[in-house]
Amino acid sequence: MRAGPLTILVIDENRLRASVIEAGLREAGHEAVTVIYDVTGIAVRIAELRPDVIVIDLENPNRDMLENMFQLSRAVNRPIAMFVDRADSASIEAAVEAGVSAYVVDGLKKERVKAILDMAIVRFNAFSRMARELEEARTELENRKLVERAKGILMTSRGLSEADAYSLLRKTAMNQNRKISEIAQSLVTAAALLGPGEPS
Amino acid sequence: MTGMSRISAGFLPLLDSAVLVAARECGFAEEEGLELRLVRENSWASIRDRLAVGHFDVAQMLAPMPIACNLGLTPLATETIVPMALGLGGNAVTVSLDLWRSMEDKGAPGDLDPLATGKALAAVVASRRQNGRKDLRFGVVHPHSGHNYELRFWLAACGIDPERDIEIVIVPPSLMADALAAGRIDGYCVGEPWNTAAVAKGAGCIVTVKAAIWKSSPEKVLGVAAAWAEWDPEALIGLLRALYRAAEWCGDASNRDELARLLAGPAYVDCPAEWLAPALSGRIGVAPGHIVPVADFFLPHAKAATFPWKSHALWFYSQMVRWDQVDASIRNEEVARSTYRPDLYRAALRGLGVALPGANAKVEGALTRATPVGSAGASLVLGPDGFFNGEIFDPDKVADYVRAQQDGLRRR
Q: Does the distance separating the beta carbons of B44 and A62 come in below 8 Å?
C-alpha cells in the first residue's frame, strides 16, 4: 500500500475551474499537483508523471479515450480504475451531480482518495454556483439596459417623463403578468422594426 | 401538462439520435402521454455514468455498450437492457487526403467497395512497413462500438491485422475531422455527419461504409436502465411506441429536409443541415464533387431497423471475444443474448398493428437480397444482410465463428 505523498493530475479544459481545484489540493497539503487543459499527447504525460489520482471534469469529450487508455494500461504501465467503482452510491451521485470524476491507481487507500474527491465535488459545485451567479448578474445588467432604452423610447415617442415612462412599463408588465424586462424587450424590438422612432 | 410521465434520455450529437429527436420534436412522445426530456452529452462515459446514477432513464447507446456494461467490462456498470434499436448503418470510414493518394496508387477504385479498397490499404500498409515508416493510426469512438468492430472486421478480412499492422485509438466523434486535419490520425470510422464533415473541411475522403462492410447492420440502440424498466413498465411501453412512430417518420423520404433541419439545430447535432443530407438520401459525397449512391446507407425504420435482434447482440459478443475484451464462456454468451429484449419490443408494439419479426435471432449474412419474411401483423421485408466477404454468422455457433476468424488471420 502506498503511503507517501500523492501525485495528482487535474484534467480540465476550463482553466479557471482547474486553478480552483489546484488551489484546493494545495491547501489540503498536496504538493505534487499537475494541471492539463489539453489532452493532446496525454499518454506520454501520464507515463512521465505516473499520477496516483486523476481528477477530470465529466463534460470532457475525451473521457472515452482516457478510460480506454487506463483499461489497456499499456500506455500508462499500471492499472488505473475509476474511483467511483469503489465509492458508496452517495459519493458517486454527488460526483456525477457536480460534474467531476476521479481515476486512481490500484492499491490506493479509499479514504485518501475520498478526501480528494470530496474536495473536488465541493469546489466544482461552488464553481457552478459562481458561474450561475455571474450569468445572473450579466442578465440583470442587460435587463436594466433594456428598460433604460424602453423608457427612452416612451419619453421620445409619447412625451412622457422618465417616471411616467417607467410606471407605464411596470403597469403593462403587471397587466400582462410578464416581467418588466420582457415588456421592455418587446418595445425595443417593435421600435426597431417600425423605424426611426428610437433615439440611438 | 399534468399526468404526463417524465422520461430523461441522454444522447450524443450524431445523425442516429434522429429517432429520439423526432419522438420529442414531432409530438410522438406527447401523444403517448410522455414528457421526453433530451439531454446532450459529450462522451459515452457520461451517458453511462448518468444512466447509472439515475439522471437518465434511457439513452442512445452504441449497440455493444449495454452488453459491455452487463459483462462488467466498464466502470460504473449498471444493468442495462435493449428493448429497441435506433436504426441500421450510418457509419463510414474516412482517410486523410495523403493516405487516399497512396491508396489510389495501389489501385483503390474510389467506389466505396470494401474489398478492393481494403486490398489497396493493405498494400499501403505493407509498403510503409518495407520503407520503415510508422504504422498508420486509425480512430474509432469507443472500444465497445460498432465502429471498432466493423473497422477491425474489414481490415482483418482484407489481410490487415488491426492489432499488429496498424494502431487504433479512441477519438470523440465531433473531433475526428480535426484530428485528421492535424495529422494525429490517418483515418477513422465514425457515424455521420462526422465523415461528411471531413470532406466538407477538405481534410479527408470517405473510402468505404458500414452499409457495404455488413449490410443492414446494427449501430445504436435504446439502452434502458433495468431498474427503471421494472419501476415504470407503462412508461417504457409508451416510449417504445413513440419511438416506433418517430422511426417511421424519419424513414419517410418526404420528411428528409425537415429531419435534417431539426437535427442540425443548436440543441442537437449543431452542424450545417447540408452535412446531414448525404446520410439521409444515401448519396454520399466521398470527395468534393464525387457522389456515390449507397443503398440502405442509414435505415431508421425499414427492414425492421428498430428490432433488437439477439443475433446482433451475439455478433458483438463474438467480436469482444475475438479481440480479447472478454473471455469466451457459456455464461458470458448468455449475458449478451439476454441483454437484447425483443420480447419487450413485441409486447409494446403488438397493439399498433405493425410488422413484427416472428424470430428473435437470424443467421446474419444469409439474405443476399431483400426478402419478405414471416412476421406478425403487416408484411415485412428484411435484408440483404450480408458481410462483404461472404461470411455467415450463425448465432447458435458463436464459438466456431470466432475460431474460424482467428484462424483466418493467423493463416494469412
A: no
